[in-house]
Amino acid sequence: MDPVVSVIGGGLAGCEAALQLARRGVRVRLYEMKPVRYSPAHSSDQLAELVCSNSLRSDRLHNAVGLLHEEMRRLGSIVLEAADACSLPAGGALAVDRQRFSAYIDDAVRARPEIELCREEVRALPEGLTIVATGPLTSDVLAGEIRGLCGDSLYFYDSIAPTVYADSLDMDVVYRASRYEPGAPGDYLNLPLSEIEYHVFVESLRKARKVPLHPFEEPRYFEGCLPIEVMAERGPLTLAFGPMKPVGLPDPRTGREPFAVVQLRQEDRGATLYNLVGFQTKLRIGEQRRIFRGLPGLGQAVFARFGSVHRNTFIRSPALLDERLQHRGRDGLYFAGQIAGVEGYVESAALGLLAGVYVAERAAGREAPLPPPTTALGALGRHLRDGDPDHFQPMNVSFGLFPPLPDAPRGRRSRREKHARLAERALEDLAPWAGRIRGEGA
After folding, report:
1. Nearest to 245 by CA among 261, 234, 258
2. Can you list the alpha helix ranges (DSSP code H) found in 263-315?
């Protein structure tokens, strides 16, 4: 009998891994605990549910995550296929309709005869080839199993931004614009703040009541997704130079940039829902309603979802995993997604893609070649392999993880040129590797 690979977790990484395996003729048993049990952040019984933002971030090649998008497209990623099919206007970003995106991947999984979908909570690690892709909200029982195998798990806290109904916004205040795209209609809604309004808002955040952590929990936040009130506590102008930066967003009614701006990004194809960009929060719900309704244009805002905070769990990959995401102490056990130590939807799906390729080759009796280190996929692998295990933190893909160009241009103005050349090199180097893992090359 051909081996059956167990994939635990029906999120982006798990679904990507399962479909990569299935497309290579490998039988898969995909475990998803919903709807038997839900994590604190999940509410839909569909696979590949997006629980934080609906954005997969920049889709431009001079951005590292945009390059990762393109690499995954060229490798037949279901996550990028779904994102492209369910995309929404978002300037240079790739944002999606949440429900349609999840349904697209759900349908793709169900359509594969090689995949058996098991709706149950996994409480012990299966024998045989297994990919753990349970994400940052792994159930307590399974987390205990993993902890027993991996030692002390690390964690940090991640927050979700609130979402409002578009028809509850004051359109006399709102203006449409995308940063650095003058004259274009713009894909974001913007709420301008004067200097006084901004400082009142910051002071309200600093004094607001927060959801407390448990006494035994230490707050360790991912720097790329800090709660807005934590940013406010770091200084009075932190937000004005962060998510509320007005640069490139002049108000067309005045022709001038406001002191600060709140941006809202479209959540669904019908443009009925918008999320507050960068407003992830652990404020109490009553405080969110009071403080955010105090912002210009949000006085009558109706919230479809309030922000929340949840724990993210991940392992010390540099000490525990080999270069193909396999646990060094247990043959046949692989990790993928955020639990392996990356941050972001796309990066998580990318590890699912890699794990699916590695395990499919293993099931066929071969050893999969590693992606070139000059690619975004290779850079993520380098982060997991070469990071400091004593101070390991999840990370988004970044050009800082790539091997440098031998003759890189210098200076701030040449950064885009350098990134464009890194992207060009990556896609050139990706092609032969993609051919090999598809069986098209040597």
Report:
1. 261
2. 285-292
Arithmetic mean of pLDDT, 125-145:
90
Say what the pTM is.
0.78
Asked whether residue 442 is assigned to any structural domain, the reply reads no
Structure confidence at residue 442 (pLDDT): 29
Q: Residue 268 domain-assigned?
A: yes
Q: What is the domain range of residue 16? A: 4-153+315-437
Length of the chain: 442
- Phi and psi at residue 112, to the nearest 5°: -90, 115
Separation of alpha carbons 87 and 101, rounded Å: 8
Both 68 and 145 in a single domain?
yes
- Helix-strand-coil split of the chain, %, nearest 5: 35, 20, 45
Q: Between these two residues, 182 and 236, which has the higher pLDDT value?
A: 236
Q: Kindly tell me if the per-residue pLDDT of 280 is higher than 50.
A: yes
Indicate whether 93 and 135 sit together in one domain: yes
Evaluate if residue 263 carries a pLDDT over 70: yes
Number of domains the chain contains:
2
User: Is the domain of 178 the same as that of 148?
Assistant: no
Position 353, amino acid: L
Burial class (CB in 10 A: 0-12, 13-18, 19+), 386: exposed
Q: Spell 242-262 as b/e; 16+ CB within 10 A means b.
A: ebbbbeebbbeeeeeebbbbb
Q: Is the model's pLDDT at 1 over the cut of 60?
A: no
